[in-house]
């Protein structure tokens, strides 16, 4: 039986009404453009006859009630269904404070967008005949009250029950934290591991057992498609960070029972106060990159001396912007050989050693 549908993904909106914006001097992202950029995206998406829209977390700047309320009302005006999951910025505290909603409050704001059970932070629903969405909550709090990316045992057990009952349905999974590594040794890197689920291997094992091949994530603010033993983790960059991307995807099941996913990526090129958004945003990121780069160079696995890191860092000014772009290829032959080889690993290179430019526009055979 053939199956065809079209959907979009917009991630890490970090929506902030003007009076709520934090003016932190070192932030990489331009929260100032959050609402006009989202409106620009919606103007495009409403012309495409979408079947649904996915928003994989960090919907708000920092969980402010007024930002959640604004988004809830705006989504209700759209001509297609929308489904959300919480990001770490949406539920930053266990108990509501003067700034943010409480952890358990999130479903109350999004009852029309997946959460038919206000007492549960994860859900499943039928998107179309034969197509099921599972929205997971990857935010937990440890014994010290710190927020961590993890699926609790109760949620994992629930997931197994849902997948066992899914029969012949196509299952799509949406979760904020990354499930497959998008960066070299991401789960063990001291700077990158917080973007991974702590128990990603356990989740992957379940997904592989039930032959779930598509997971949609955010959090990392980069355009990347990662693959592990039958599971594609398609992470979408942030709408408020360079290159301000979003995706439109088309799924096709042909007469031979083969499943194809066509991915097309788009970018917000300008908003009223930022007519050259791409150039401005890339420069903004580069201007603030030095502290990040010095940490990257001096922490494991490179462990470079501070003096050497300070010498190399200016050459890496646009390194993270290129990562965020997706499909990056790196050549730092002027670096010491071991450092050059390390940064080449961040490029879009397949295990065969050849470029694999699938992060932005590609067609995957599932």
UniProtKB/TrEMBL annotation:
A molecular function (GO) term: hydrolase activity
Keywords in alphabetical order: Hydrolase, Iron, Metal-binding
Domain Calcineurin-like phosphoesterase: 5-222
Record carries keyword Cell membrane: no
Signal peptide: none
The organism's place on the tree of life at top rank: Bacteria
One family name in Pfam for this protein: Metallophos
Family label: Belongs to the cyclic nucleotide phosphodiesterase class-III family.
PANTHER family per record: CYCLIC NUCLEOTIDE PHOSPHODIESTERASE CBUA0032-RELATED, PHOSPHOHYDROLASE
Listed name of the protein: Metallophosphoesterase
Organism: Hassallia byssoidea VB512170
């Amino acid at each position: 039986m053939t199956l065809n549908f079209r959907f979009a993904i917009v991630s890490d909106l970090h929506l902030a009404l003007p009076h709520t914006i934090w003016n932190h001097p070192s932030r990489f992202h331009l929260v100032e453009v959050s609402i006009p950029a989202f409106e620009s995206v919606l103007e495009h998406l409403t012309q495409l006859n979408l079947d649904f829209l996915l928003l994989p977390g960090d919907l708000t700047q920092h969980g402010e009630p007024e930002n959640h309320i604004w988004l809830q009302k705006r989504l209700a005006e759209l001509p297609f269904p929308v489904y959300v999951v919480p990001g770490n910025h949406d539920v930053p505290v266990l108990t509501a404070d003067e700034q943010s909603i409480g952890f358990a409050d999130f479903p109350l704001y999004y009852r029309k967008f997946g959460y038919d059970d206000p007492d549960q932070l994860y859900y499943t629903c039928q998107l179309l005949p034969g197509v099921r969405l599972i929205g997971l909550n990857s935010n937990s709090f440890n014994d010290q009250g710190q927020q961590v990316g993890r699926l609790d045992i109760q949620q994992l057990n629930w997931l197994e029950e849902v997948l066992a009952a899914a029969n012949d349905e196509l299952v799509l999974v949406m979760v904020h934290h990354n499930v497959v590594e998008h960066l070299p040794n991401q789960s063990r890197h001291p700077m990158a591991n917080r973007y991974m689920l702590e128990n990603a291997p356990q989740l992957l094992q379940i997904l592989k057992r039930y032959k779930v091949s598509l997971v949609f994530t955010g959090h990392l603010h980069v355009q990347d498609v990662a693959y592990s033993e039958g599971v594609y983790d398609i992470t979408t960059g942030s709408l408020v960070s360079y290159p301000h991307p979003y995706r439109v995807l088309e799924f096709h099941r042909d007469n031979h029972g083969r499943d194809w996913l066509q991915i097309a990526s788009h970018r917000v090129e300008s908003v009223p106060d930022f007519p050259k958004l791409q150039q401005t945003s890339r420069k903004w990121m580069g201007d603030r990159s030095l502290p990040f780069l010095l940490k990257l160079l001096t922490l494991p696995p490179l462990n470079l001396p501070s003096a050497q890191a300070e010498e190399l860092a200016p050459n890496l000014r646009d390194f993270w912007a290129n990562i965020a772009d997706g499909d990056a290829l790196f050549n730092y032959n002027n670096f010491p050989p071991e450092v050059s080889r390390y940064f080449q690993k961040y490029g879009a290179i397949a295990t065969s050693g050849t470029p694999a430019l699938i992060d932005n526009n590609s067609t995957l055979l599932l």
